[in-house]
Design brief:
Layout (H helix, E strand, L loop, with lengths): L1 E6 L3 H12 L1 H8 L3 E7 L13 E2 L2 H5 L4 E6 L7 H10 L3 E4 L2 H18 L3 E2 L11 H7 L5 E7 L2 H13 L3 H10 L8 H4 L2 H15 L1 E2 L6 E2 L7 H10 L1 E12 L2 E12 L11 E8 L3 E8 L3 H17 L10 E4 L9 E2 L1 E6 L3 H8 L3 E3 L5 E5 L3 E2 H8 L4 E7 L2
Parallel strand pairs: 1-2, 1-4, 2-3, 4-5, 5-6, 8-14, 9-11, 11-20
Antiparallel strand pairs: 7-10, 7-12, 10-11, 12-13, 15-19, 16-18, 16-20, 17-18
Bound molecules: L-homoserine.
Length: 399
């Protein structure tokens, strides 16, 4: 039998507890041994909840109990999660987490401690919630160089953009509606400014290209400047706008970015709507492969965490090889990142547009403005070309 301790009895922790109990014989058969929740750590009490029988308030009880084999960290935030996970690994326990802040910041170090101690540190649920993406990336798609990752990795912003597109409602109205329905946080900044997606693409960039990509280095632009007028133009060209996390390798340079992108209908991400997430990988041999599903929520996220627990139990006595060096990778800047741009400017001087931007494709526009798609250009060339124009909107276009 293997004993599990869950750190945090919130949305994900209660889902992990439920899955291990409700699907116990299935999960145990897949793990090859019976799995039991021995402890749940939380500061709160839960009177009347069966979890009371295993509830503890002191992490030392868990760390010092040699019969605990796997610690599940689902508290969120860097501290005290980092200290607790590090102590658990150092005490010879495997650790599984859904915590993107923890993994983006300390993933490389925690993987290396797990290797020293011959245990495992797994984090499938930290990107894309219930969608399997980490394990496919490090264990399945091993024959390919990953040329690019494009991910819709934030359900809140995808929901807001879908409503703006389908219902013609403006950003503030949709955000308020999403908050009232509980789809968006009262403080929505981490989602709408792209910080949540930034942590997730930092993790995927580090894994795909095997060296630490610091999330602080990733150019991050949220969705607050997107308007219903932008979506009106998208309807004319059969495209949509999605908040993407991008990782791309060109030569020896890795680019990583979070920004809204124009997506044409031939990109499989075009049909990813509402709170759903999807991650599109481009392998040099495989071509495109997309992973789609629920990127948040108690049971989908907990399902990914429990799959890590099963894997950790199956691998007892051996450590999975995860290539993620702690050496920092300097990434290419947003100025050097090349892409076409969708642009709206005030006025209608096409000669001046072509003089600055070269050949462009015009889109029939609103009165008093000119809209067009540029050729592929770097961020710095775009900024130079745009000088002197009154730019209403500019959105990168997925190549
Ligand atoms: N706030 C996140 C989202 C939750 O909207 O996708 C999962 O990280």
């Amino acid at each position: 039998m293997k004993n599990i301790a869950i750190l945090g009895y919130g949305t994900v922790g209660s889902g992990v507890y439920k899955i291990i109990n409700d699907n116990n014989s299935h999960v145990s058969r897949r793990a090859g041994e019976e799995i039991k929740v021995k402890y749940v750590l939380d500061l709160r009490d839960f009177p009347g909840d069966p979890v009371e029988e295993v509830l503890v308030h002191d992490v030392d009880v868990i760390i010092e109990d040699e019969s605990v084999d796997v610690v599940v960290e689902v508290m969120g935030g860097v501290e005290p999660a980092y200290t607790f996970v590090k102590r658990a690994l150092q005490a010879g326990k495997s650790a599984c987490t859904s915590n993107k802040e923890l993994v983006a910041k300390h993933g490389a170090e925690l993987i290396s401690i797990a290797q020293e101690k011959n245990v495992n540190f797994f984090f499938e649920a930290s990107v894309g919630g219930g969608i399997p993406i980490i394990r496919p990336l490090i264990e399945c798609i091993t024959a390919d160089h990953i040329e690019e990752i494009q991910g819709i990795m934030n359900g809140t912003t995808n929901y807001i953009l879908t409503k703006m597109e389908d219902e013609g409602a403006d950003f503030d109205t949709v955000l308020k509606d999403a908050q009232d329905k509980g789809y968006a946080e009262r403080n929505p900044e981490a989602d709408i400014e792209g910080h949540d997606a930034c942590r997730k693409i930092a993790i995927l960039s580090s894994l795909a290209y095997e060296k630490q990509v610091d999330f602080e280095d990733i150019y991050t632009e949220g969705i607050t400047k997107i308007t219903t007028d932008d979506f009106d133009y998208m309807k004319k060209i059969g495209a949509s706008i999605k908040l993407l996390g991008i990782a791309r390798k060109e030569g020896s340079t890795v680019y990583s970015m979070v920004a809204p992108f124009v997506i044409y209908a031939d990109n499989p991400l075009y049909n990813v709507k509402d709170v759903f997430n999807a991650i599109l990988l481009k392998g040099d041999m495989l071509g495109d492969v997309m992973f789609y599903g629920k990127g948040a929520g108690s049971l989908p996220t907990a399902s990914a965490v429990v799959s890590d627990v099963v894997d950790a139990v199956k691998r007892t006595g051996a450590t999975a090889e995860i290539l993620w060096e702690s050496t920092k990778r300097e990434i290419g800047s947003a100025d050097a990142f090349t892409t076409p741009y969708f642009v709206r400017i005030k006025g209608g001087d096409k000669a001046a547009v072509e003089n600055a931007f070269g050949t462009v494709e015009y889109i029939d526009g609103k009165d008093g403005e000119t809209a067009f798609i540029t050729g592929v250009m770097s961020g710095s060339d775009f900024n130079k070309a745009a000088e002197g124009f009154d730019v209403v909107s500019r959105i990168r276009v997925s190549k």
